[in-house]
Amino acid sequence: MWIFVSGDIMKAKEKHYRSILKSITYRILGSFVVSPIIYYYLTKSVETTITFSFVEFFGKLVLYYVFERIWSHIDIGYGEPVIDLLDYINKKKDGGDK
User: Fold this and answer.
1) DSSP conformational letter for 98
2) Is the dihedral of CA 10, 16, 22, 23 positive or negative?
């Protein structure tokens, strides 16, 4: 997410709770919509389908969260310019770029 302040551009860092929410919603879609259709088709067992769906949900939820946090520290693909928010605030408090 980019924030525009007085003509300057700053990149907002994702919070941990955002990664958690993204992980949960993504896994709900995959584990309780797509996967059960495949599991049931392969096993013809409702009990096995439900068990696999829950195991997959929690396992991949943890994996995706870790994956997301690792990528939040990788700057590839963000582009320039990126301004450090604390530096920007301190410069504005001190009277700007002199």
Assistant:
1) -
2) positive
Is residue 35 a contact partner of residue 48, using CB atoms and an 8 Å limit? no
What would the DSSP string read from start to end of 25-55?
HHHHHIIIIIHHHHHHHHH--HHHHHHHHHH
Mean pLDDT of the chain: 78
- pTM (2 d.p.): 0.51
Strand partners, 76: none
Between β-strands 2-5 and 8-11, what pairing exists: parallel, antiparallel or unpaired? Answer: antiparallel
Closest CA relative to residue 1, chosen from 23, 24, 18: 18
Residue listed under structure tokens 């520290």: 73
- Helix/strand/coil for 25: helix
Bridge-partner residues for 5, per DSSP? 8
